[in-house]
Amino acid sequence: MTPQTNLKPLAFRPLPLGSIRPAGWLLHQLRIQANGLSGHLDEFWPDVAQSGWIGGSAEGWERGPYWLDGVVPLAFLLDDPALKTKVQHWVDEILARQHTDGWLGPIQSDSQNHSYPAYDPWPTFVALKALSQYYDATGERRVLVAMERNLRRMAALLAQKPLFEWGKSRWADLVLSIHWLYERIGGDWLLDLAALAHAQGYDWRAHFADFQWKDKITRAQAQQSTHVVNNAMAVKSSGVWYRQSGDDGDRQAVYQAMAMLDAYHGQATGVFSGDEHYAGKNPSQGTELCAVNEYLFSLEMLLAILGDPALADRLEHIAFNALPATFSPDMWAHQYDQQANQVICCIAEDRIYTTNGPDSNIFGLEPNYGCCTANLSQGWPKFAAHLWMATPDGGLTAVAYAPSQVSSIIAGQPVNIAVETDYPFDELLTFIVHMARPMAFPLRLRIPAWAEGATVTVNKGRPIEATPGTFHTVAQRWDDGNRVILHLPMRVVAERRYHNSIAIRRGPLVFSLKIGEDWRMVRGTLPHADWEVYPTTPWNYALQIAPEEAESFVRIERQPVGNCPFSPDGAPIRMKIHGRRLPGWTIEHNAAGPLPPSPVSSQEPPEELTLIPYGCTNLRLTEFPVLA
């Protein structure tokens, strides 16, 4: 058990916010984000700029906390003075407005333009996540005091009125914050509150144990338990509760949830469909941006709790594909829904979605609904903040990879490790260890399950084979300047998908057809206007490939990793492959029509096609029919 607590110990402990600094392409990506919507919503978008959480007259529910939850880590990762000033202003306002009974945030009946009930717990869950990150970065004890007062009020409230609606579905986010505070201040009353939230919350373990939703649902079937974001949050629910229950069934339930979502709604990017509810495996169905970000956060928390490298493989799978693809390259626009086979983005009265509106897949400020506008910021910063974690034996673990450096205190001594790499666009990673004097500690490196033939080389030693799907431990006495080179071979593989189609992967990256784009501004003002995107080149291709020998059918081309790699022109890797058009495969309901079952035939002439990483695309075809 964790010292002085009754919770199961974390497998890995996340490092304090600010311990990890982005470098290389990741630094550029976070700066793009700070220069886009994330860094400026509070200047012009009423639901943040005039949020009820800071005394304004606009929305006083989830949107302000959502924005803060992503901008806090962004500000401290970049060590950006302007962003940190904005964050401090928000925290100061929230704490100054704490009610005498301990409640944080507006009491909704007193908030203008809102019909939510008074003392709705759900938005407070998000605020607590943001405040805990702020404390980790600053150590401001008034945050702990405010959180304790709020949770005491929450305990009294839930004793009178159980969790409902969003709070009932998302109870695990509350339990996360309760456990976080418990490890800092103690108090059995906090564990009692966590148990109460679990008891009042929706039973996700039972939901996935007897999974009933195996097809695209109808509008009439839509409910809280079929909601895509609730499910992305729920992936972590049994794992979060496992720390308190100690029940191995809760640990196993994490994998059952992921298996059911993959089996019946899984997409090539590692996410599952939901536009806004379960939508099946058709790659023309959408996945909401909020679900992408919340799935990433669920995986980050589960990694800390369970320490399973497979969870980190999935984390990268989503972060390097689905996450960047749902934004314009400059991050001044986003989609509500993205599609794996996304061949047109337009306002569509005739549409394929389960319940989402006509503008759900256009790029813009607030397409369909503003929750994603508020919640778009957390994906990249939280991914960066969880690249490294500490281990109980006094070591460090690289759980995911990107150019960065980590600073930590090991046995009382500062240690810094720089990661020099263009991963995921390259196979090589170099770790350079810096310290004032020699010392011993274990360094663990994740070896992805796909990395057959991976090797680890320490200084000028011989390469050591590393087992895929494990954490490889380098335990030695380290001197300043020691280097570790990790080689993760990336083979091209073809994965069978919907209607016997294939998706092409290389390492953590999924590859999609590069489609010409015509961006048309349809409303709003620059730089945060709304855009439709129309194809200017054909998209309806089948590939000439033997899936079991995929690598022999492609030619890889590279260009240097620039300042905006997640863009069509900036894609550092391109694949050349041959295919033929399928003239009968057309757009239906303003989306790519039903995927022709493979194998298919075509009398059209063969063409050389260009595939680029999914995350670099705005229009794309990702699941391809296969020619006979």
Question: Explain this structure to me?
Answer:
The chain has 19 helices and 25 strands. It is an alpha+beta fold and 628 residues long. Among the domains are: 45-201; 392-487, Maltose phosphorylase, domain 3, CATH 2.60.420; 492-616, no CATH class. Strand 11 and strand 12 form a beta hairpin. The model has no long low-confidence stretch (mean pLDDT 97).
Give the strand tally: 25
What is the CA-based Rg, rounded? 24 Å
Helix content: 25-40%
Most strands sheet: 7 strands, antiparallel
Query: Which structural class is indicated by helix and strand composition?
Result: alpha+beta
Mean pLDDT: 97
DSSP strand (E) fraction? 15-25%
End-to-end distance:
57 Å
**In DSSP terms, counting alpha (H) and pi (I) runs of 4 or more, how many helices?**
19
**Low-pLDDT regions:** none
Sequence of strands across the biggest β-sheet: 2-7-8-9-14-11-12
What overall geometry do the principal axes of the alpha carbons give? globular
